[in-house]
């Protein structure tokens, strides 16, 4: 039986998402988890949930109902992932969702472990995850407001 290596920082994130943010994960349609050889991971947003969850989305299949303005913005897959920057010696949590592309620092390996931070490592990781969730939620609220504005004659 082959075991999969999950980096300790990735494990803290995944366990936190599972234990404390499960409802948010389900709402977002984050279903596809890939664990890479280096222990980092990638969570992919399902394509059916692209910031339109029950906000007047058109399920008719009519190609003319496609929002052509968003096609260019969504060429990169919407996902959340962890990575390590070998030059900076930093571990990152990154989100790419529509127009949002933001990195959240997980750990700076150039700083001593005791460097001016009284919070435990899991607490700091949880704060980074929560900051990412707030950024995604803010984006969705802005997009819903924009869609509402455009639908009700504010756009043109």
List keywords for this structure.
single chain, alpha+beta, 5-stranded antiparallel β-sheet, 35% helix, 22% strand
Terminal CA distance reads: 60 Å
Structural class: alpha+beta
DSSP summary: helix tally: 4
What is the chains' assembly state?
single chain
Could you tell me the radius of gyration in angstroms?
18 Å
Shape: globular
Main sheet strand line-up: 1-2-3-4-5
Please report which band the strand proportion falls in: under 5%, 5-15%, 15-25%, 25-35%, 35-45% or over 45%: 15-25%
Folded structure, characterized:
This protein has 156 residues and is an alpha+beta fold. Helix content is 35%, strand content 22%. The protein has helices spanning 8-20, 22-28, 68-71, 121-151; strands at 30-35, 41-45, 79-85, 90-97, 100-108. Strands 1-2-3-4-5 form a 5-stranded antiparallel beta sheet. The protein starts with 7 loop residues before the first helix and ends in a 5-residue tail after the last helix. The model is unreliable at 49-74 (pLDDT under 50).
Outline of this structure?
The chain is α+β, with helices and mostly antiparallel strands and 156 residues long. It has helices at residues 8-20, 22-28, 68-71, 121-151; strands at residues 30-35, 41-45, 79-85, 90-97, 100-108.
List the helices and strands and how they pair.
Elements: H1 8-20, H2 22-28, E1 30-35, E2 41-45, H3 68-71, E3 79-85, E4 90-97, E5 100-108, H4 121-151
Antiparallel strand pairs: 1-2, 2-3, 3-4, 4-5
